[in-house]
Amino acid sequence: MRKHLLALGAVLALSPCLMAQKIGVINSMSGPEAPIGENITNGIKLADEDLKKKGINLQLVWEDDTGKPQISMSAMEKLATRDNVVGVVGPYTSACSNAVAKLAEKYRVPLLIPAAAKEEITRQGLKYVFRMNAPADKYASSLIDAAASLGKPKSIAFIYENTDFGTSTTKTAKEYVARKGIQVVADEPYPKGAADYRSTLAKVKSKNPDLVFMVSYVADAILLMRQSKEVGLQPQAFLGAGAGFTTTEFAKERAISENVISCTQWTNDVNWPGAKEFGARYKAKFGKEPTYHAACAYASMMIMAETAKNAGGDRAKTRDALKSGKWNGVMGEVQFADYDGFTNQNNHQMLVQQILQGNYETVLPAKFATKKAVYPFPKWK
Amino acid sequence: MAVFLQSLISGILIGGVYALIGIGLTLIFGVMRVVNFAHGDIMMVGMYLTYLLFTLMGIDPFVSVLISFPLMFFFGGFLQKVFINRVLNAVAQNQILLTIGLGLIMSNTVMLIFTSDYKILTTSYSSSTIQVGGGVSISTPLLISFLITAAITAALGWFLLKTDTGQAIRATAQDRDAAQLMGINVSRMSVIAFGLGAALAGTAGALISPTYYIFPQVGGTFTLKAFVITVLGGMGSVVGATLGGILIGVTESMSAVYISSGWKDVVVFVLFLLVLLFKPSGLMGKSRT
Asked: Is this prediction's ipTM beyond 0.90?
């Protein structure tokens, strides 16, 4: 009897270490955003491996939102009420993240959003919602500043997909260019999944913009550039605001992606601790280069899991620990702060990259740059 | 002026592909009075077939039309014989339910096999253009698909007007009972008509695949477009569907330029509503009792 009690006591004493942290993941694993969602999945898988090595066991509950906000909302409800997760990492798109944020607050489940751009998500004073990546206003300012530092653009045209991601990024970009004295000559939202942008692009071409600023997901980015080449749109620079313009699928289309400038949350040659190794490890394991989404997801899961474990799996304590914590890893320094009307926002440094010879090369800021930017955009062959 | 010409030309070119889908749908309705809600999904199957032929065997998408046309014809014929034939005399709602169900099975099967990831066909001429002077450029793949569409439409016209089978199909479309009394095998005509409709839809998919992306749910948008075109042109009228397709293509293109990309679908539907208000049987249709 004594022996049994002793054994039981030992097990109970050790159990917090053996207990797996139950963390939910909402991601676009199938559907149109799947190519980018795949990066988030793989980033989280790498984090899971690393956490195990540190003695943190995870029980991940994967939910596929297929890119639709209503499905990510029901996924969140399930994770919060039926699965009783301690925290959630995800979703991917701005539309899904915004939909889920209010639910996270309602159920008081800490939510760490890895890569969604829409500013308003962390401008609602929600205490349980945290965001890893720099929001849309940084996408706009880093791209416009880059162009202004490379040349003297006077006019800009906006072509963007008309859901939360496109509209919020463009709105903040328009405010920024007004301050910089660059004139907006065209403003063309388009419905996601349209087949033919030729007439829109011809219209933009006739206005002769110095810069063309585009906000698109994967498939549209390729079609837009293909059709831009067809109609002969020739600005000083093509500026792609993240997402579709940062994927390997896009870079592979050599004929149309060369010299496109895009902004990104992460590149694999930046000197944040472990960044280069992460890139190499991702490529070795999954056979292709990671996008910034993979690094954001990796860092988010590492932070969420460690914080949850230290808080003993309690949601409120995890939230407090996320708020007060400081980390330094593959995404550089991470701290969730309240500033400029943002709540729980990591003030992340964005990078500007350009596709040169089919590879993404960091060109700005200067301290991280590996190659010199090509400007203006060379004539289409 | 260049912008106007550019949008007119791209509108006509893409209208040609829309017309092909519309002709397929109108043929099926004309002969069988069945509204085929799976039409866009049949087109999607054609797109994936083209994709497979391109990636596995290296056959150019336009050349593979020679293979996919007959294959899709047999697929359509099979669908008709096994499924659609059983509901020819049923209530319209049941016919609709059946075709919707077939469409769902097709799109979900393809999703299971290929996943929902968008596939993009890149050929050597995917981004090339022909400069027509005055700053207007024509997309090479779109131009080729328009020419092929024109050739197929001409061949279809010749088939329907000059061959016995073609005339039998038109007879069945005009009056099924009278045709049967005249000794026409109307059930065989239905199989051929559905096969032709499916082949045309599949071919439209093959033709548009170098310039668009391929994913299992692409059928939905095109079914809707096909309906607008078919009703606009007059249900059962091949000429109407051709005109309707080009009209819709040009309207979309022009409204994207002169109003806004986001509103072009609204303009198309408003146009559709206006035609229905003032000429309910469609542009070329005859009112039916």
From this structure: no
